[in-house]
Amino acid sequence: MAAIIETQGLRKVYSRRRGDDVVAVEGLDLTLGRAGTVHGFLGPNGSGKTTTIRCLLGLIRPSSGVAQVFGENSTESFHKVSGRVGAIVENPKMFPHFSARKNLSLLAKMAGIPKSEIDRVLEIVQLADRDKDSFESYSLGMKQRLAIAGALLKNPDLLILDEPANGLDPAGIAEMRILIRDIASQGKAILVSSHQLAEIEQVCDEVTIIDRGRLIKTGTLDYIRGFAGADNVIVQIADRDKAREVILNAGFEARPRPEPNELLVDVDVDQSSEITRHLAEAGMYLSGLRAEQATLEQAFLNLTGNAPPPPGPPAAGTAAPSVDQGALADGVVPTAPPPPAPPSPGAPS
Fold first, then answer.
1. Third-level CATH fold of 5-226
2. Mean pLDDT of the chain
3. According to the model, what pLDDT value does residue 313 have?
4. Are the CB atoms for 146 and 100 separated by under 8 Å?
5. CA-to-CA distance for 98 and 136, rounded, in angstroms?
6. CATH number of 230-293
7. 208-235 per-position pLDDT tens digit
8. DSSP one-letter code for 25
9. Rounded to the nearest 5°, which phi and psi values hold at 120?
10. Which of 39, 233, 310, 332 is most exposed, with the fewest beta carbons within 10 Å of its own?
11. Lowest-pLDDT range, 2-11, 246-255, 290-299?
């Protein structure tokens, strides 16, 4: 049985007028997607996520390699499976003055879908009681949900969502999370591209991480979280600085946490009694000790090489280079970080 989504040696190069090509996706091999699961597609800004999705949907032609959906080549024969695929790429486009129902009616008519499907999808996204309101009157979260309703009109087997929670407030993000899980529970396969790692951790069953257009890791959520690093314990103690000195002298690494009177100690939970013993011998006693749970965020930072270094004073005369990842277009990776721009007068610090 063919995989739902598969790429083989997928490569996409954009040519620019000044002559230097930009490699957005480089030799990407993927096999993913199972019915009833949510698969997170993660990567730093500029990693090639949206370019990959566009190749899968037949919106752009790969420079080389193959992108397939339900066993069909997306470049040559995506039309054969387009009825099984619903997708939202970038911001939803609707007629602002039309009601939600009228917008969906137009989409249904163009696709030859019975109008009875409109009531079904409005119920799924919980907009049945607002179906006569204009699109422009909707909140951003409601607009995103209506866009998903449009993608669900043809009752697809695969739903591809590119940053569905982007710009939403906490309530809107929670609603989107519940909606995605509800859709997956109906047997749909869902691919979600996102940079909101904490949210992906709550909604996804499987995760794929790419960086600079290349596959880094793919697997179950628990498997990916296994790359978060060594187990740690969090020590709560009144004199944090002195406690850190004692722990360092005992041969363990300890770093201050943002919370006052807390240290993050690089030690297995089973060895936490060693930390307690060394502190007690120095006449220091804990007010609390707990294990730090491995997170998708830490695994992501480790795997993409973006984990921050341990806190400490910088060497004299040196400064850490930085790249504004948020300013990069998808797939555009500079060869060197840009110089820092001087602050504008009156700009907030």
1. Rossmann fold (3.40.50)
2. 83
3. 40
4. yes
5. 8
6. 3.30.70.120
7. 999 999 999 999 998 998 887 666 788 8
8. E
9. -60, -50
10. 310
11. 290-299
